[in-house]
Amino acid sequence: PATCHRRLRRLKKEGFISRTVAIGDPSKSSEPLTAVLRLVLTDQASATQNQVKDLLRKQPEVRMAWMTTGDFDYLILVAFADVPALARFTEHVICKHPGIRHYRTFLSVEDLKFETSRQI
């Protein structure tokens, strides 16, 4: 194998590369609407944290999720076909979860930069 292939194989084996993905153009996607939601939990109990983490991991609309410090507890990036689909998600998933006190939604109006890479 080529030197590059051997290095990639080694980096995967050593856990530096967790997966290989292709990134599609959002404008050509069936889910062109990107939104960011800030979630504030009802409390900081481990049970609440774990329930919200499980909820976020199970939702196919959630593309990325981070537990954060500061004024809110979680920041999530979601993708939808349109605004009504986003509204259904917030109404039926986010609002109905007893561990989420409130949320705030920010709609993306233009993709400026999207990098998933990190230095190894």
Description:
The longest helix has 13 residues. The mean pLDDT is 93. With 120 residues, the protein is α+β, with helices and mostly antiparallel strands. 30% of the residues lie in helices and 25% in strands. The protein has a four-stranded antiparallel sheet with strand order 2-3-1-4. The radius of gyration is 17 Å and the shape is globular. The chain contains three helices and four strands.
Terminal-residue CA separation: 22 Å
H/E series, N to C?
Answer: HEHEEHE
Structural class: alpha+beta
The tally of beta strands, per DSSP, is 4
Strand content: 25-35%
Low-pLDDT stretches are none
Counted by DSSP, the helix tally is 3
Shape: globular
Helix content: 25-40%
Short note summarizing the structure:
This protein is α+β, with helices and mostly antiparallel strands.
Task: Considering the chains and any ligands shown, give keywords for the structure.
globular, 4 strands, single chain, 120 residues, 4-stranded antiparallel β-sheet, alpha+beta
Topology, pairings included?
Blueprint: H1 3-13, E1 33-41, H2 46-58, E2 62-67, E3 74-80, H3 83-94, E4 100-107
